[in-house]
Design a protein that fits this description.
Shape: elongated
Strand content: 5-15%
CATH class of the largest domain: Alpha Beta
Distance between the termini: 94 Å
Number of strands: 16
Oligomer: single chain
CATH topology of the largest domain: Rossmann fold
Radius of gyration: 34 Å
CATH architecture of the largest domain: 3-Layer(aba) Sandwich
CATH superfamily of the largest domain: Alpha/Beta hydrolase fold, catalytic domain
């Protein structure tokens, strides 16, 4: 009986180890495929199978090219107005169309953007093995670079999740301008060992580590912006630290408080929009580490609102003759030399003294000039004296015929006075003559501190090198309260704003 028991025990042990051996060798021969499937789990999914996919209105150019190994690479390209072009690497959840919202977000920042589907995702073919993914990323870029005339010095590499591994591999072999990493993982070893007592199971099958983002970035020499949710269980939050600490160049990190892995751009893109545009532009970020919690979100929302208002000034109408912000300079004339608006009113009022007796301004400018004049009168107990308001083209021709210098008098068709929005107050011929009089000096000081509240701006304040003309403390132009306030807060003239922001944007 004892013999039979021992024999049976050995048989069970042998069968058990034989079973383990079969399991091991099965996984040994399938290990690479299993690892590929774990990294790209949705490679066989068609976008039509995703019932919760929401189509975005993207007017893109669909790209289909044949790789060097005769496989199809499917992708897209959208043209933007800025110099920079974004190469977007999507995460592994679904094929490319599922990420239209993120691509649209980047394109709405006015950047050109292109992206491709990984092998066996969407319309792309073959298996997403490391070498094949690298080949696709290289072949697709070379095609876009040639066809769209993209320069590497204007290339932004933008990746999300597993896309970080693909993009880091690409970036290690190509020049670029800057990189954006959203929820990056450190390596395949690091992604797996958290489930196996801190031991990467690949070692059991003699597989080398791969997609080692944390090591590759040691050799990068371009600025990086890294973003990660601190409640991410798909790519553990701890993995960002390896990537961040190893990154050898200028870097900034945004920790999103109490947030997981998916749809960071969809949920926080509006808050982070100005940070993205600042980072991609030539202006460095003013932080290295930011925690994006509710308090910080409120502060960023306030900053974004202010920025939006500022951007609205850049889109003002500076060309149309009847625009309140019509830009006039020695290089920018009126479109019609006989321009005349249809909302003219006489200047004279209780607190305004029209020296000529028949001068006019546009209704909007006159309304706010009346309010300004009333407050001016409360301060100095004198009416605001208007020496010269509207001047016609013919009138300006006469002024120039008297021999007035170009730095003191504009050529006909190039004078702000023809806008019916500008006026000269009190009487003086030069800056020194105006300011040497104590009362006029006080009036000017009051206007400097208060005129913007009523929508008026001192046009010529920085001499001819910037404003084209000599300084004229008596010349004021209505541009609207918001724009006048912006110019006052920035301490810049209309001409300075136009030349530094509008012509160079």
């Amino acid at each position: 009986m004892v013999y039979n028991y021992v024999t049976m025990k050995y048989k069970k042990t042998i069968i058990f180890f034989l079973f383990l051996s079969i399991i091991y060798w099965f996984f040994f021969f399938q290990a690479e495929k299993i690892q590929t499937l774990s990294t790209f789990p949705w490679m066989q999914a068609n976008i039509q199978d995703v019932v919760w996919y929401e189509e975005k209105n993207l007017d893109f150019e669909e790209i289909n090219i044949i790789s060097n190994s005769w496989e199809n690479i499917n992708g897209l390209y959208l043209s933007g107005t800025k110099n920079e072009t974004v190469y977007y690497f999507h995460w592994n959840g679904w094929p490319l169309p599922y990420f239209y919202s993120e691509i649209k977000y980047i394109h709405d920042l006015w950047y050109s953007v292109f992206a491709f589907d990984y092998p066996w995702y969407g319309k792309s073919t073959w298996m997403p093995e490391i070498e094949k993914v690298w080949e696709f990323s290289k072949d697709f870029f070379e095609y876009i670079k040639k066809e769209k005339n993209i320069q590497n010095e204007h290339l932004i590499i933008w990746w999300y999740s597993v896309g970080t591994a693909v993009a880091v591999d690409f970036a290690s072999k190509n020049d670029f301008l800057k990189i954006v990493l959203v929820s990056p993982f450190a390596s395949r070893y690091d992604m797996w060992k958290r489930w196996f007592f801190n031991i990467p199971p690949q070692k059991l099958f003699f597989m080398e580590n791969s997609y080692i983002t944390s090591e590759v970035v040691k050799n990068f020499s371009k600025p990086a912006l890294i973003i990660h949710g601190n409640n991410d269980f798909i790519v553990p939050f701890s993995q960002w630290k390896q990537v961040f600490e190893n990154y050898a160049w200028e870097k900034s990190f945004i920790e999103i408080d109490d947030y997981g892995h998916n749809w960071i751009i969809d949920n926080y893109g509006g808050i982070l929009k100005n940070i993205f545009t600042q980072f991609i532009s030539d202006n460095p970020l003013d932080f290295q580490y930011m925690i994006l919690n509710q308090e910080k979100i409120q502060l960023l929302q306030q900053e974004n609102q202010k920025k939006e208002q500022e951007l609205s000034f850049f889109s003002q109408d500076f060309l149309t003759d009847n625009s309140v912000t019509k830009y006039v300079s020695p290089e920018n004339s009126f479109q019609k030399i006989d321009y005349e608006p249809d909302d003219l009113v006489k200047i004279s009022s209780e607190y305004l003294q029209d020296v000529k007796g028949n001068q006019t301004l546009r209704q909007g400018a006159k309304t706010y000039l009346d309010i300004l004049a009333k407050d001016f009168h409360k301060t100095f107990w004198v009416p605001l004296k208007v020496i010269s308001a509207y001047r016609s083209y013919v009138y300006q021709v006469g002024i120039k015929s008297w021999g007035c210098s170009d730095i003191f008098c504009a050529k006909a068709g190039y004078s702000e006075h023809q806008t019916w929005l500008a006026f000269d107050m009190f009487e003086a011929s030069t800056e020194s003559e105006f300011l040497q009089k104590e009362d006029l000096r006080k009036y000017f000081s009051w206007m400097q501190q208060n005129a913007y509240r009523y929508g008026f701006n001192n046009s010529y304040q920085k001499w001819k090198q910037i404003d084209w003309y000599a300084v004229e403390p008596w010349h004021w132009r209505y541009v609207g309260i918001d724009f006048a306030t912006y110019l006052w807060e920035k301490n810049i003239s209309f001409w300075e704003f136009y030349n530094n922001y509008i012509l160079k944007k």
